[in-house]
Design brief:
The complex is a heterodimer of chains A (232) and B (112). In chain A, helix 3 (74-81) runs parallel beside helix 7. Chain A is mainly alpha-helical and 232 residues long. In chain A, 60% of the residues are buried. Chain A starts with 12 loop residues before the first helix and ends in a 25-residue tail after the last helix. Chain A has seven helices and two strands, in the order H-H-E-E-H-H-H-H-H. Chain A has one domain (13-215): Arp2/3 complex 21 kDa subunit ARPC3 (Orthogonal Bundle), CATH 1.10.1760.20. Chain A has a two-stranded antiparallel ribbon. Chain B is mostly helical and 112 residues long. Chain B has a domain at 69-100. In chain B, helix 1 packs antiparallel against helix 3. Helix content of chain B is 52%, strand content 0%. Classes of the chains: A mainly alpha (232), B mainly alpha (112).
């Protein structure tokens, strides 16, 4: 298992610094919004979202010749606990990885937070909501939209990475060459991201749909059937 | 089907994460990931420098002094799961504590 986010020295200093400032602003917004909107019972669920994304990021799956991919987790976390707390959860994962496991450069932490935590949670969640509505706002639509938005997460991260590369990359290869290779491999990684997101959100929708932030306002089928006359 | 409690749900979820670490993480695909592969192929990683904590005790999801890669991955993975859970839940707990609560707060009686 290798698991590599953007390392130090990959994108130049000024670009990394700007990304760092963007990351700080984004995380500050996440903190503010989370404190305003989060339900108390969701507190351990935010911990779970971070822990699950961390564990899943260790599981590199093969995508092509000599290449692997792993979950990024932005949409998974955002659908589960909302874009604000979801962005925080993935930021926690990336920070622990950089500080404890030397995975992802310290000077590149802002880049990685912007690309994977914030873009995944904000842009990915917006796409999820649009898809959920288009699919009819049902329980099934929640799971399906999460899967499709999950598929797009690595492509969103790649698009933003390409902006960073264009501004602060080392120019060893042309933009088009890098973009073609990056979008190609991340389309394959997206399939894995989509499947994992679909399965994970589907499982939670079966167990506790009321805990799924992305399903708020959706008429969930679990209307507490009292088949066995169990005291509720 | 009766709904499980939030505590049970979180325990199940963490249990799944632990199982992923124990069973699947040591078998994860060892090839470079998408970014690393493209970077190496295209030479755009020429300026990359060593991580400041590359010699840290848990660098690259290993454990210094533990040669068995399965055991090292288990320890690193479980440590990461515990740390991310604690920090993730801890931050939002602190946020909620700091925020003026909606619900009527019990008067804080300091003992002593």
């Amino acid at each position: 298992m290798i698991g590599m986010h953007i390392p130090d020295g990959f994108i130049n200093g000024p670009t990394s610094l700007v990304a760092g400032l963007l990351a700080i602003a984004g995380v500050a917004l996440c903190l503010k919004k989370t404190s305003e909107t989060l339900d108390d019972r969701e507190i351990p669920v935010v911990g779970l979202a971070a822990a699950f994304v961390f564990a899943a990021q260790m599981l590199n799956f093969p995508v092509a010749n000599g290449t692997s991919g792993h979950l990024m987790g932005g949409v998974l976390a955002a659908v589960l606990v909302g874009p604000w707390a979801g962005g925080l959860a993935v930021t926690v994962v990336l920070s622990v990885q950089a500080l404890l496991f030397a995975d992802g450069g310290l000077s590149a932490l802002g880049l990685n937070v912007v690309n994977m935590a914030l873009a995944g949670a904000f842009i990915g969640y917006a796409i999820f909501v649009a898809l959920r509505k288009a699919l009819g706002n049902t329980t099934w639509a929640v799971t399906m939209a999460a899967g499709i938005a999950g598929f797009l997460v690595p492509l969103i991260a790649t698009a933003i990475f390409m902006i960073e590369y264009a501004i602060g990359g080392n120019e060893a290869a042309s933009f088009g060459t890098v973009a073609a290779a990056m979008f190609g491999v991340h389309t394959l990684i997206g399939i894995g991201e989509g499947i994992i997101t679909f399965l994970a959100i589907g499982a939670v929708m079966n167990m506790r749909p009321d805990l799924v932030y992305g399903a708020r306002g959706i008429a969930t089928r679990t209307t507490r059937p009292t088949l066995q006359g169990a005291p509720s | 089907m009766r709904r499980i409690s939030t505590l049970a749900f979180v325990l199940i979820g963490v249990g799944v994460a632990v199982l992923l670490v124990l069973v699947l993480a040591p078998n994860a695909n060892p090839n470079p990931d998408g970014l690393e592969k493209v970077a190496g192929d295209k030479g755009i990683d020429a300026g990359v420098t060593d991580h400041a904590f590359a010699e840290g005790p848990f660098a690259d999801y290993g454990v210094s002094g533990v040669d068995n890669t399965w055991v090292a991955t288990w320890i690193a993975g479980l440590l990461g799961v515990a740390a991310t859970f604690a920090i993730g839940a801890g931050i939002v707990l602190l946020l909620r504590r700091a925020r003026p609560t909606r619900s009527p707060t019990p008067t804080t009686t300091t003992t002593g």
